[in-house]
Each structure stands twice: as structure tokens, then as C-alpha cells.
Amino acid sequence: MDLDWLVEFLFTIIRLSTPLIFAALGAVISRKAGVLNLALEGMMLVAALTGVVFSAITQSWIVGLLTAVLGSMLMATIISYCFLVIKTDLYLTCIATNMASIGGTVFVMFLLTGSKATTAEALRSMSIPRIDLPLIKDIPYIGDVLSGHNLLTYVSFAMVFFAWFLIYKTRIGLRMRAVGEAPEAVESVGISVPKIKYISFLLSGVFAGFGGAFMSMSYVTWFSRDMVAGRGFIGMSIMNIANASPVGSLGASFIFGGADATAKYLQLQNLPTDLVFMVPYAVTIIALTVISIVRIRREDRIVHGKSLRRKKATEKAAE
Amino acid sequence: MKKAIRIFIFLIAAVLVLSCVACDKEPAKPSGEATGKKKITLVVQQLGDMAYNDDAWRGVEEVAKKYGYEAKALEVGADQSKYGSMILDVAEAGTDYILTATSIMDYAFEYAPRFPDIKFIAFDTTATVEVSDPNIACISYLQNEGSFLAGMAAAGASKTGVIACVGGVNTSPIIHDFIAGYVDGALYQNPDIKVLTAYSSVYGDAAQMKEIATAQANSGADVIFQIGGPGGLGVFQACMEKNIWAVGVDSDQRAVYKESENPELADVIMTSMLKKVGESLIWTFDKIEDGSMKWGEVVILGVAEDSTGIVEGDLYEANVPKEVRDNIEKAKEDIKNGTIKVKTYFEMTHEQFEEFIQDASKP
């Protein structure tokens, strides 16, 4: 009985983490090229709507998923055009895009369905299927946790590897990192900096598109007003906690997903709701603090060849 | 450069000429005076909440059709600092009635003494609100009474002995009042029932409400009452996946989704707790038209006035046992004649309320 509860709980964590993984990867890949994508929230929202609309028109989830990603990429292209060609400020453009997306998606939804709240009444959209993993699903307990998730959950895991491979093992990844660290140096060897920035921003849009599609085509099967509810921004803080590492982002997403799932289950245990609502945010602050301490220690070790504590101890001994 | 200036001057001239043509043809006239129609302005945060705001607008449109008024909805958004000036704009532009929901009420009532010719009506207020001006009326609903009946139906239909409810946000006294009535009704029907209560931290976050409802279902709940506007759809989907019953809120949500493109959502909605906001506005304007409306008061509408209640549709008949349904009919009568006094959030402190729902969630 208790183990069933744990299985359900772990399953919930993975489900809650999926959109966060996509958002975090979107932040990571844009951050690496020094063009942090603040518009993830808006892109996810637009992707969520386009996915629902086109899957309803074509009655095919594949088309829905592809158009969701394309919608998000289109947004990325527009923002890139603004800040790379006509030289607007990147962050202001992103913030404006977020605000425009919140109102704009409701406007488009109203035009298409006549409802300002949700597409559930007027559109019958498809959902992305769940996948049972062969072999793994037969393992007791572990199979129940790992198998039976939405296709996009497995895609998100694959994307973590893809992002890692792209950033650290390919030429384009090397250039992205170089653009993020020292754009002048990249320019001096004849590589187009705007092009690299555009590619990384576009990839960020692809990840956001998957995240948005997960919200509206598998979490639930409709679009509703402002349904991303801050998950794009949480993705950005995950990127920060993980120091822009794809694999670290996966871990940090699970921390957030876990905190969220804990909050849901704690409410059932009769704890005051205000306290419970605080849990995910408290976990964020604690995680940031712990990671910052670990990072400082590590840097210290690299610089001085020993840990801070040991250094103090040796200083004392010397006295 | 010269050419640019010339084009600029030409454009300005063109604009001036065109605007003169426009003023010759259409002398500006306030449309209300021109048509002689009375004007109702509904001021809400946002339409499309699938709850009381939408229902109110439906009611206002009905009134406009019935009595030949001119109806307009103004969506003021979530930024409270703008409410005052937006209401002032509406009042100065000329309107006969300003209708607002609770959240905007205070900003509107501020202007009541300044605009004695405009009638202010606030709906969905708390029963304890104080009305001081003679051009104000408040409509308060006893949602606890309707929720009481929903709680009885849920407890009667439950096979596991555990039921649940999800509130859209934990800062609204109205939502607390729904829950107080629901829990009270469930305990009245079955004193041994376990009622799980949870809230969403963001209003309208369907994904979060789905997650909460799934967690409640995993803890054994087999009937879940949603009080969360657009987020409530998440609860319906969770119930669909877990194969349990949901209870809708405000309007007959089964009827709404049965006609929609996703009819399978309707098949989990056993019944809906009704709060007839639209009907009550029609009723109010009926009274205004025949001159029997009393201003400067709070009108309280509950089960006795048939303003709150539950839907008794096919799924309700099929899944709530006969003796429970008879009991509900009896409870309705008892609420009307005052034998049953339904617990309300407005007559307890928040601590008492929390203690009450915590006791109900213990086995």
C-alpha cells in the first residue's frame, strides 16, 4: 500500500518536471550563446495554442506537435530579427513578447472559438499518446514509475542528451559557447556572430515549442488562458541553478517537480495551505544557497588547491 | 528634405479635410440620448471565466433583450490601481446602471455619492457588506446552501467513503463559503464521510487543479467538487482518467460540455452546484422595471429563492441512491423553513473554518 503511494508520487514528479525540463533546456541553449531567452513563457503559450488549433483542424497530433514547434520557432525568428537586425534591446523585446503573447493568445482563441477562457468547448484537439516501455514496464514498481509516461516526457530526456551533445561535442556548439564567452574573438576568425546567436535562439524556440505542446496536448487536451502559469520563468531559474548545464538542468527540474508534487500531497495531509504553497519557493531558495556554497568551495579548491575549511585549519595550525 | 516636408504637410491637410467631412456628416451625439435607450455597463475583471462573470453577462444580455436596454461589458483586467479611473470614465461617459462583481465593488461605490443618477448594483457580494447610499444595491448568494446539497449528493454517491473538493484560490471568502457548505452537507448525509479539501495556488491553472484532483483520487476520493472557474476543467479531466465523479459549479456544466466538441468531459459531471447569477440579475431588473426594487439594501438569495441549488439530471438520478435523493428533497424544505442552518464561512473565524475542514478530512 505504502509502496503504491510512493510509485504514484514518483510518477507525478516526472510528469510535473517534463515542461520544466523543456523550458530549462530552452534557457540553457540560449544562455550558452549569450542571448538568454526571457520569452520562453510567451513562446510556450503560443506553441500551446497553435498545437491545439492545428491538431483540431487536421485531427492529427503529429501535425499539432510540429505546428506547435513551428509556432514557437516563428516567435524566436521574430525576436531574433528585432534584436539582431534592427538592434532592439533583447530583454525588453522578450518581455514585450511575453506580454503580447498572454493577450494575443486569448485574442486569437476568441476569434477562433468565441470563448475567452478555453478551447475545450469548441475544438476537439488530439493528445500526444502515452508510451509503455517494452521490458521496463514488466519490472515491478520501477516499471510503474518509468513506463506509461507521455511520449514528450521521453523526448525531454532525449533532448537533454541532444542538448549536451550539441553544446559540448559539435562544432556549432563550440561556436555557440565561444559567442557566449567572447564574441569579438569569434568575429575575428570570420564566423558570423549574429548567425550563431540566431541558431541558438531558434533552438531555444524548439525546446519551448515542445514544452508548450506538452502543456496543451498531454497534460490537458485543450488550451486555456495563461495556461503555462509561470513554468517558462521557472525553467530560467532552473538553468541558473544548474549553471547552464543541460544534465544539471535535468536534476534541478526534478528538484522543482519534486517540491511541487510534495506540495500537492502535503495539502492532503492537512497542513495549512499557505505553508504548503510556500514549499516550491522555499526549496528554490535552499537549492540556490546550497549550490552556491558548493560552487564557491569548488572554485576555492581550484584556486588554492584545497578547501576553504582546510585552508582555515592550516592557517590556524601555522599560527 | 523639401519633398519630405511637402508630403508631411499634404498628409496633415488630408487628415484635417477628412476629419471635417466626418464631423459634417456625423455630428457627435451621445448614443444613449440619441436612441433613448437605458444603458447597463457590466464591469468585470475578465469575461471568459466560465463562472459568475460569464453568467452575469448572459443575464445582462437577456435583460437588454427583454427591456430594450443597451448593454456593454467592460473588462478591467487584474490591475486594481486602474479600477477607480475606469469606473469614473464609465460614469462620466453616461450610463444608467453600473454592475460590478465583488472585487471591483469598492471602487465603484466610491463614486455612488458623486453620481446620484447612476444606480450601482454589485453581485456575488458577501452577505455582511454594508450599504450606505440610496443608489446602491447588493446581491449576495448563499452558495453554502447550494453546496450543502452538492455535499449531500456527493456523500450519497460515494462508494469509498472519501470525497473531495478543490478550491480555485485560497484567499477568497466566497470559495471558503462554498467549501464550508459542501463539507457540512456531506457530514449531514453521512457523519463518517471523509472530505479532503485542497486549493490551487494560481487561479485558473488547469494543470495544477488536475494534479491536485489526481492526488485526491489516489487517496481514495471518488467524487470531487471543483470550485475553480476555468481551472476546473483540469478536475474534470482528472476524474475522466481516474474514472470517478466530478461535481461542477455555478452553472449546469454537464449541459455545457455535452453540447461541446469534447462530450466525454460531460460524462464525469454527476451534477453541478448551481449559483444562478444571470437569473438573479434578470430578476433584479424585473423588479426595477415594475418599481418594486428596494435600493440601499443587500438582497440575499439562497435555496429558498431557488437561486442556489443542484442540477438533478440523468447522472444524478442514476448514481445518487433513492433514499439520498429523498433526503436531499427533505433538506431543501428544511433549509427553506430554517430547520437546517447551513454552516457559513461568514459566521466563523478563519481558524474555526480550518479546524472544521480538518476534522472532516480525518477518517
Q: Low-confidence segments of chain A, ≥5 residues, pLDDT <50?
A: none
Instruction: Give the overall silhouette of chain B.
Output: globular
The oligomeric state of the chains shown is heterodimer
Largest sheet of chain B: 6 strands, parallel
Shape of chain A: globular
Please report the total strand number of chain A as a whole number. Answer: 0
The tally of helices of chain A reads: 13
Number of domains of chain A: 1
CATH homologous superfamily heading of the largest domain in chain B:
Response regulator
* Domain module count of chain B: 2
Derived from helix and strand composition plus strand pairing, the structural class of chain B reads alpha/beta
Tell me the distance between the termini of chain B: 85 Å
What is the compact description of this entry?
The complex is a heterodimer of chains A (319) and B (363). Chain A is mainly alpha-helical.
Could you explain the architecture of this structure?
The complex is a heterodimer of chains A (319) and B (363). With 319 residues, chain A is mainly alpha-helical. The radius of gyration of chain A is 22 Å and the shape is globular. Chain B is globular. Chain B has a 6-stranded parallel β-sheet with strand order 2-1-3-4-5-11, with helices on both faces. Chain B folds into 2 domains: 91 residues, Rossmann fold (3-Layer(aba) Sandwich); 186 residues, Rossmann fold, CATH 3.40.50. About 4% of the residues of chain B have low confidence. Chain B has 14 helices and 12 strands. Chain B is an alpha/beta fold and 363 residues long. Chains A and B meet through helix 1, helix 11 and helix 12 of A and strand 7, helix 8 and helix 9 of B.
